[in-house]
Amino acid sequence: xxxxxxxxxxxxxxxxxxxxxxxxxxxxxxxxxxxxxxxxxxxxxxxxxxxxxxxxxxxxxxxxxxxxxxxxxxxxxxxxxxxxxxxxxxxxxxxxxxxxxxxxxxxxxxxxxxxxxxxxxxxxxxxxxxxxxxxxxxxxxxxxxxxxxxxxxxxxxxxxxxxxxxxxxxxxxxxxxxxxxxxxxxxxxxxxxxxxxxxxxxxxxxxxxxxxxxxxxxxxxxxxxxxxxxxxxxxxxxxxxxxxxxxxxxxxxxxxxxxxxxxxxxxxxxxxxxxxxxxxxxxxxxxxxxxxxxxx
Length: 296
Known about the structure:
This protein is α+β, with helices and mostly antiparallel strands. The chain has helices at residues 24-32, 50-56, 63-66, 93-102, 104-127, 151-155, 189-194, 196-200, 212-220, 247-263, 277-289; strands spanning 6-10, 15-18, 36-37, 73-80, 85-89, 163-171, 173-174, 178-186, 206-211, 236-244, 270-274. The two termini are 32 Å apart.
């Protein structure tokens, strides 16, 4: 409740040190002043916290550009449940040796984690699926030597079952000054899903999808948002955001995507370009306000 500040923001180093109670949008808003952003932006970004993002290994529409939370955590200041406070991050062999020479509880934890990675490393390599949004379970693969024995990232997604996060150093990425939103409409979710791989090849900085029944259920619950009028009455939608140094550049990327989709005989029943920030925001709000509206 009270640990909710940005402790440091380094635009040149593209890093920020934050407390776990900080709201996701507060960090993104501060970073935006420097042309940067924190990539993970779940639909609840207006009120979810960085501690929650770390606990859940949150994703979001812009993780297609910058990765999920685990990919953006550099260090954590943690408190274990037996009272040890320590900084954790990527661990070189030299740093591991220094920790072992210092002895104590920290050395014991690191030694046991290293042994765990050695014992199950082959099974982890073979069994962990190589998919962009693997967020279930513990990130044991981050303890592997090829991942830098990254203790901080191994804790992301652990939902505080191993330690409490007191602060986090996170990575920031460049965010285009101008954006254009491509909205593709489909008969159903399966048809939309069929073209996700192709749309990703066009290089969007954000990608999201949802079904029309979300809008129907919002209407039933008395939610009537301006963005609803901008969407075709089809079964499902893909929202793909493109960025550029000018509005013309961002729009051009959408037009190029339209041309490519036409050549491949897209399954989309309608394709729309929205360049006005107000229209883009209204459409994103429909998707984000639809959280919890998938059922009546």
